[in-house]
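This part of the workshop introduces the protein records we will be handling. As an example, a complete record with its sequence and its structure tokens follows.
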Amino acid sequence: MGKNLAISIGINKYDFLTPLKYAKRDAELMQEFLRDRAGFDQVFFFSDDSPDIRGKSTRPSFINLKRVLRTMFEKPFMRDGDNFWFFFSGHGMPHNGYDYLMPCDGDPGDVENTAIPINFMTERLRRCGADNIILILDACRSQGSKSGEGIGNQSAEIARQKGVITFFSCSPNQLSYEIDALQQGAFTKALLDGLGVQGKCATVERLDHYLSSRVPELIRQYKKSDTLRQTPYVIAEPVTKSHLIIYSQYATSHDVAQMKVDAFYAEINKNFDLAKQLWIRVLVVYPGDMDAINGIQRIAVELSGKEASSQKNSVGASVANKSESLSSPKSTPLGNTTSSEADVPLKSKRGTDYTKLRDLLASGKWKEADEETTKKMVEVALRASNNYLQYSDINSFPVEDLGTIDLLWVKYSNGRFGFSVQKNIYESLGGSRKSEQKIWEEFGDRVGWRVNGRWLSASQLKLAPNTQIGNLPGLLTNWLYRSEGIQTEDLVESLRITQSGAVAALLLSRRDL
């Protein structure tokens, strides 16, 4: 079990800003949840009248908060697998393009010298050493609501750059409301519901979805208005961060399987730091998991081999360089892999055997592999007798099988083919759950499923090794494109929760857009 620490700050009484009603209570409830229900080792609480910690004042003043950030985070004291949460409920303010959290003595007339820059705070938090840092900002309050020029734009960019998962209570320039009947902010109420028995949100992604619907619901219910808007959102990049399990009590086997798929992807893409972090995350939820243990061992061998190889090769590097021609480097032939690469575990929730698919891909037999992919997906969906898929099959297609098929394609094509490759192309064109027909057509053009404005039939698909990136797998996708009765938006949404995705493999499963 990893170490779990947090800071929870809630400020009602401000020296130079409008006092708030429930920011302190929000922070208290967050502290209680993390300490008593989530089992955090320690939660440092800062509020108007919070007790001292080892003789040090916890009044959330500029000096006190700056001192904590400076001294507590001077050196790493956590490691991979650990969690650090930072919750702030109070005023926030943008100033000259930068976002600030306002301490209780923050002066809106002298923001730079009396407020805490969010970029400074984020940089200090990252020094703790934990690989999972979660920032929760409910910091745009004014006169009982969070209003005016809210923070968010610069903070969101920092979150993207630093890889810190950040939840915002509302979109920039929106209000973030307090609800008298609940004696809470709408956002914190929804947040605690989502993490509790009502929402059972184990992952970043599930909590994001819950907040997106629950907060507007609370506003409509208690503010009796259809015009007020409060739209929380989360920054979690890279996309694997959205799959992280942040509250293991409600984690499912599906959640863990998704993290395993992400870890295998990272290994195949040689991102060993990320892969190791993800495998450690799996072990936090499932101690003793052999997939994770084997993954960490593979990475250790790979890294030690690279170090030894670099030392050996450095001696003859200059000689080799002299004998090299000026021609462009030769790429690894499709279908060939090195012995040091991670073997893709042939996981299947249904007990499906993917040995033949693996062997076909390893031999570069793309047409046969595409046919085998279609066969296996129909088999997994228990539709082998009638050889087609229904919407319900796609909606419930096991992530283990989806990940296995995709990982095999990505590995043996050296990243040219696979559902996730198609998904990335689709999203790079601006594709989302509900896209215009133009996006679908551009996608078809890009991957070679559409030529001269016409969609190709299955028999017309170019199943050659040198075809466009993302062209394969293609048979199942082409069949779904031509089928009737399956709504594209529903298909994309049903598979959006998995990075292994297969979103793109089902992109064209539509009637008329």
Observations:
- The two ends are 48 Å apart (CA to CA).
- Residues 142-148, 315-340, 478-513 have pLDDT under 50 and may be disordered.
